[in-house]
Amino acid sequence: MEKLKIGTRASRLALWQAEFVANELKKKFPVLDVELIKIQTTGDKILDSPLAKIGGKGLFTKEIENQLAEKKIDLAVHSLKDVPNELEKNFKIAAITKRENPFDAFVSEKFSSLKNLPKNSVVGTSSLRRAAQILKIRPDLQIKNLRGNVETRLKKLSAGEFDAIILAAAGLKRLGYAEKIREILSEIIPSAGQGALAIEIREDDFLTAEKIKFLNDEKTFSAVKVERDFLKKVGGSCQIPVGIFAEVDEEKISARAIISSIDGKNFVEDKKNDSLKSLDDFGESFAENLLERGGRKILSEIL
Asked: N or C: less crowded end of the chain, CB within 10 Å?
């Protein structure tokens, strides 16, 4: 019996994502034996510091890629937003699944929306992008670092450590916590790739590439290409407050993006629409436009 080994982080959300891919593969290839290999990453080990302070790229992918390189696994399933913009030359993203809700969610046990939070309320997030955009909207709030898996974050909210927390809507929905969402924060621009899953393989593994190509969603693939091209041009990582969200249909691309200071006081944001024919350079040119209009100065003061 043919076998495929899938590398994944061990959190409940990561396992849901890997199991989703495994189940789709088994439906398509009923005789295929699919095994999940749990791998602990640097980002999973360091839970007492904000991601921006840990620094570096591939906090949630490097150890998985090492096992991919050593042929201990055949493919890796990642949250696309965790995947560095530039992969090592021996790897490639072979498929990107259809996107779940890409936006952030407001979660609170006492308050119905971000607008309704009392002055000086404590909001939990580990993301500089989320923090900056929340402070842009509500400069009177206090932002407190929040790390850990989804369950840990929800427990900290229940324990009263925060008045509200901000989480990806996709993760909450996938884990069955949709009822926890009090508000979808569509005005907050998400991170590149948020809500989509990336399937990474060795570049020369054509057999696995052929097997998983049915999982690729073309519209999502094109949209996140724009987002990742934008982020690559900006030099984006979890250390800077940058948001980018693109949508693609049969004829056009539309996107909106923000580059912000950490406190949300200085920012440049814009929207852009163009023909689908401009896909190859849309993200880079959009980024250059924002950099020229003040984004470069904002980033220079952060970095």
From this structure: N
